[in-house]
Amino acid sequence: MDAESYQKTVDQIAPKRPVLLNCMKAFLTGGIICAIGQLVSFVFMYFFSFTERTASNPSVATMVFLSMVLTGFGIYKKIGQFGGAGSAVPVTGFGNAVISAAIEHKSEGFILGVGVNMFKLAGPVIVYGVFSAFVVALIKTILVKMGVISW
Amino acid sequence: MIVSVIIAFIVGGLVCVIGQLLFDVAKLTPAHTLSLMVVIGSVLDGFGLYEPFIDFAGAGATIPITSFGNSLTHGALQEAEKHGFIGVLTGMFEVTSSGISAAIIFGVIAAILFKSKGKVS
Amino acid sequence: MKKTGTYQFASKPSIVSTAVSVGPLEKVSPFHPHFDFIYEDERIGQETNEKGHSQLIEDTCNMAVTKGGFQLQDIDLLLAGDLVNEMTPTNFAARQLATPFMGMFSACATSVSSLITASFFLETKLMDKVMFGAASQHNAVERQFRYPIEYGAQKPPTGQWTVTGGGYGILSHHQTGKPYVHSATIGQVMDCECTDPLDMGSAMAPAAFDTIQKHLAQNKGTSYDFVMTGDLGKNGFSILQELIKSSGVSSYLVDNYRDAGAEFYGNEEKFLSGASGAGCSATVYYGPIYAELLAGKWKKILLVATGALLSPLSFQQGETIPCIAHAVELSME
Description:
heterotrimer; A: mainly alpha; 2 domains; 8 helices; C: alpha/beta; Peroxisomal Thiolase, Chain A, domain 1; 6-stranded mixed beta sheet; about 35% helix
């Protein structure tokens, strides 16, 4: 059996991912999470004297806290199966990646388990976020120094 | 206030749809998808586009993981403006401490409090 | 001529006793009346998933021994395996059982590869009782091959659910009134360049097809009640049926094909394509199917356990997923 013709058979028979439905679910889930984030930032603006700009940091932290509760009680993975990227892309999904790994590796102890494995899913996000920020900022700084653009 | 919640809903939802297309059409793993989105966020800030996006969409722009890339670049650029090239290195985490520190703190707390359960979703 | 890997066992070794136990979630299975024991706790009351996995193996092996009216010291050899790194759950259970032991790894096809190997040992008459089987524990397998249990990754419709369960049997010399091993086909590794670890069914179907074809070609004219694959799941099983249809293999008097993984969780949609894991075929073959053979419902069946031979590392390094299938033909007089 040659691999190429077999892959064609698989493509014909295997159930397709329901892309449109998945996108609608992702839109709904992600939208709701961001709307909750917006409400949370209003709370920080009206009750804790944060400004529109500075409210985002405590809001993000609060969302990660909510993510911990949902992850710990086994609810976030159900939201994840429904919402797909809708629950993975918001910062709550980043929190879920960190927290689920932390919970999972508790059985190997707090140093070798939790500590070592906490970022095994979310690590690339930090690594490539930092590295791309470095490259972008470096290029921009060079261009400013050369007088090509201004801050 | 209602309007900004609706905008956050729509914009945040659309950003997630992009993520879903990367999952389902480009067949990327979650790790690849999220890394790519962070890089996109950081590049957008390089062009000075992400802050206006936040002004427009509020949490619709700050909650998706793209904003993490934005704040890293933003911190680096702010310091670079003050201290030149050294600032590129030192300013990185100036703005964006909360997402990572919250994830670490709540991660450890969760590990103390919870155990995983293999219930079907 | 190329060897087909098909062997007949003239001494007709009989499966004299089996035991099957599963986790709490497997209660929903339509097969559950034939499971000997259903644990209330997914960790079998242990601290870690891996310890629970080991406990399940130990308990189930003990059950198989007791049900047959034997003692552990009667066992000449334990041949068993699981999916966890270095097979520690089975190795640790074997430490407790303290019988002569050899680990077997054929991924999810271990249920049958261990039975085939046991049949050869029996055929030599050097041994009297060989215990065989396989097990898997959902959490322990998922955390190793995929993601942490609580991580919210979306599984596609081709995804399968790893069974928590184990099935073990004891093979001895021929006994009338007990199902016996008539023949077996040792599969060869097949790779049709599938790469998606969330679509194992598509990857394994060609291996199952190849082994079935070889076995049936050596046993022309034999009439089977059914041929049952291990854990292709609903998707892999439809692909297998398509392969069989387009090749005309069904002309060998088999028109009834089944798949343990596709049937395991019934029509529950949340399990997507169905069940998988070493415990899937082991619990179905040595639980319900064995019971029905014993009751005389079936006279001749072909069990084809399938295994995907990948690791998280091989996937990350961009390797394709090679697969294997082993077949064993059981008869009841």
